[in-house]
C-alpha cells in the first residue's frame, strides 16, 4: 500500500478521480502546540543556537514588553489580587494535607510544615513570574500579595485552632489564647511572608535586567530565612505546650 502511494502513478496529474491522501496520514502524530506561551518561545526554532549564535536561554524582554503593552492596568491589578487571595488557601491545604498525627509529627511541624507554607503563600506570584511575567509591573505587588496571602492563611488557621480543633476545656483562658493567635501567630506569618517576598522581588528584578525566564533560585536565601524563623517559632510553641501547659 505504501509503495503504491509513493509511485509516480499516484501523482494527481495521473488520477482521473483526484488525489487521495495516504490513509496513514490520518494516524500520524500532529505537532504539539504549547499552551504555555513561554515554553513556545523557548522551544521556537528561532532560538536555536545556530540562529542566535549563543547557547543562552532565549531573551524574553521584548516579548514581555509587548505583552505588557497589550494588558490593561485593571486587568493586571485583578490578576495580582487573585494571585494574592489564592496563595493563602493553597498554603492551608498544603499544610493540613500533610498531617501531624504520625510519628514524624514534630519533624513535620518544625521542618516540612514551614517549607510548604512559606512556598505556597508565594505560589500566586511564583506562577505569574514563571507563566505570565507581563502581568507584574511593580515591586509592591509582591509585598501586597505576601501580606494578603499571610493574612488569609493566618485567618483560616486561627479559626481552625480556636473553634474547631481544641476542646473548650483545654485552655484555662480561651480569650487569652485567641488573642495570642490573632496577634503573635498572625504577626509571625505576616513577617515570614514579607521576608520571602523580598526574594521574589529580587527574582523579578533579575528577570527585568536579563530578559530571561524567571530564576526562582535567586529567592532561595530569603525563603530559607523565612522557613527557619517559622520553624523556630513552631519549635518554641511545641516546647511551651509540652512543658508549661
Name the descriptors:
mainly alpha, 10 helices, 67% helix, 0% strand
Set out the fold topology.
Blueprint lengths: L1 H5 L30 H6 L6 H4 L8 H10 L2 H26 L6 H17 L1 H9 L8 H25 L9 H37 L9 H25 L1
Helix pairs in contact: 5-6, 5-7, 5-8, 6-10, 8-9, 9-10
Describe this structure in words.
The chain has one domain. The chain contains ten helices and no strands. The radius of gyration is 27 Å and the shape is elongated. It is an all-alpha fold.
Model regions low in confidence, pLDDT < 50 over at least 5 residues: none
Q: How many structural domains?
A: 1
Which structural class best describes the helix and strand composition?
Answer: mainly alpha
Q: SSE order in H/E notation?
A: HHHHHHHHHH
DSSP strand content? under 5%
- Cα distance spanning the termini: 83 Å
Overall 3D form: elongated
Specify Rg, calculated over alpha carbons.
27 Å
Amino acid at each position: 500500500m505504501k509503495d503504491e502511494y509513493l509511485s509516480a502513478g499516484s501523482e494527481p496529474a495521473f488520477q482521473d478521480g483526484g488525489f487521495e491522501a495516504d490513509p496513514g496520514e490520518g494516524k500520524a502524530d500532529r505537532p504539539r502546540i504549547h499552551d504555555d506561551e513561554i515554553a513556545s518561545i523557548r522551544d521556537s526554532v528561532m532560538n536555536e543556537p545556530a540562529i542566535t549564535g549563543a547557547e543562552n536561554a532565549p531573551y524574553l524582554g521584548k516579548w514581555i514588553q509587548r505583552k505588557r503593552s497589550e494588558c490593561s492596568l485593571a486587568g493586571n491589578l485583578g490578576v495580582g489580587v487573585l494571585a494574592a487571595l489564592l496563595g493563602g488557601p493553597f498554603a492551608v491545604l498544603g499544610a493540613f494535607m500533610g498531617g501531624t498525627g504520625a510519628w514524624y509529627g514534630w519533624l513535620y511541624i518544625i521542618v516540612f510544615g514551614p517549607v510548604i507554607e512559606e512556598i505556597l503563600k508565594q505560589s500566586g506570584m511564583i506562577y505569574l513570574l514563571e507563566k505570565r511575567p507581563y502581568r507584574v509591573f511593580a515591586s509592591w505587588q509582591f509585598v501586597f500579595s505576601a501580606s494578603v496571602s499571610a493574612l488569609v492563611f493566618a485567618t483560616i488557621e486561627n479559626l481552625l485552632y480556636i473553634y474547631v480543633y481544641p476542646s473548650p476545656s483545654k485552655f484555662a483562658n480561651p480569650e487569652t489564647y485567641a488573642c495570642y493567635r490573632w496577634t503573635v501567630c498572625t504577626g509571625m506569618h505576616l513577617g515570614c511572608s514579607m521576608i520571602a517576598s523580598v526574594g521574589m522581588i529580587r527574582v523579578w528584578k533579575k528577570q527585568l535586567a536579563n530578559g530571561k525566564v524567571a530564576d526562582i533560585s535567586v529567592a532561595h536565601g530569603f525563603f530559607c530565612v523565612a522557613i527557619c524563623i517559622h520553624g523556630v517559632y513552631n519549635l518554641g510553641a511545641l516546647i511551651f505546650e509540652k512543658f508549661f501547659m
